[in-house]
Model the fold of this input.
Amino acid sequence: MQRYAIAPRADWRTKVESLGLLFHTTEDGTDAGVPYWSEDAYYTLSDADVQRLESATNELHARCLDLVQHVIDADRFGELHVPEPLIPLIRETWETEPPSLYGRFDLAYDGNGEPKLLEYNADTPTSLLEAAVIQWHWAQEKFPQADQFNGIWEALVEMWKRLKAERAFLGAEIHFAHVDEMEDLMTVAVLQDTAQEAGLVTSSLGIEEIGWDPGSKCFVDLEEMRIWSIFKLYPWEWIAKDDFMPQIAETIRETQWMEPAWKAVLSNKAILPLLWERFPGHPNLLPAYFDGPRGMTDYVSKPIFGREGANVTVYRGGQAAASADGPYGTEPLVYQQLAPIRPFDGHTPIIGSWVIDHASAGVGIRESRPIITDNFSRFVPHVIQ
Amino acid sequence: MLEMSRLRRSQAVPATFISALAVVCLTGCARQYATTERRTCVDQNGRVLPDSYCNSSSYNSGIYRYPRYIYGGTYDQNSGMMRNFRSSPSPNANVVDSRGTVIRRGIGSAGRGFGGFGLG
Done:
């Protein structure tokens, strides 16, 4: 794994915007902003790197599925702080297996040793557009002969085709719902676009626009048509607090929600100590605990429902070395050994490794100068070399 | 052992729908929730009926069937009919039924984006 500087395409802004990446620059209060999509550098992965990442992703996904079964069997929902109304839905969807589409592991990997799990965005992963589309088109132009660990688009299309052929959906139309944020809209658009390519009928609406018809006791879209199968880019732990939670629970067998509710078990950093407890010494896991660092001196504390690096504190030699503010200060913490990631020209990369239809399908790389990858980190393309 | 020669990059990424969406969103595609629309059950003349008429098993949601729901509009006290209504909700409207019970916006109270990756 290496990082190289490279000249950006002269018209890169126009090109990425035409492909939906309208959020290529993050506002920071300056006129220029902070680039989010960054093509003044790229990473190279070797075949060995790709094999390690692919193997680790498939292995970790399998271990995570094992963990869901264990959490259900041993009733360990309390340690995960799963909202009480979600628990029956988790049990129900684990048994009935509505379609589960995708997820993204965040892995610590710098080309040395085994990739290590930092977290699993199993319920509401974003950055799908950048990984599946934008870096693919960049590579087509800059390195047309090179390969890229990015079969994400094709894997999504094949997944939708399979689900359609297996009549896995309850209705003829698939709805897609998201909150009013461009990044979320475009992540959903990738899923919707690939579903259409697979021959499915789709429509989209805002998460707030989902309607409940009290007469027919079903969810409806803006045309008052019944929603049978819906993908929602909105976390289950938030749904559990929303007004429609009782109706969702009441109709969980009549309406398919994707991702299914059991993904709420995995999109929770409390899985880190549970995985370490269940698979101690696993090469793709870092030591992690609920009750404190247990003698670790270089470690990270993070809130179990935290996002985008919020409220994360990095400790070196037992002393706080870096921390990030955020809204999750009252949540329970987990303590995970600090992953030793080698900086590349002062940048620390994190691998976003995509699971599509339960299999590894490609990666995206985000890098940041501070050690905590936050909302100001940059997405940097890669090729296999 | 994995095949070393297997192509790992998608053969094609047409992104047709995304490209069309991008054109729309370049000029702004954020939703607004400034309006609240009342959903009312009416007959073919616009006469107001109890919601139960529209909720009956014979009710079909097609817009040419009656009785059916209409959205917004004004109530004419003299005729007892709705005027200037819509056949479907306005985009982004917060829809309430005849009792004022919220039947949309029951999900999304957090209403913000998320995602990201890293140590957190």
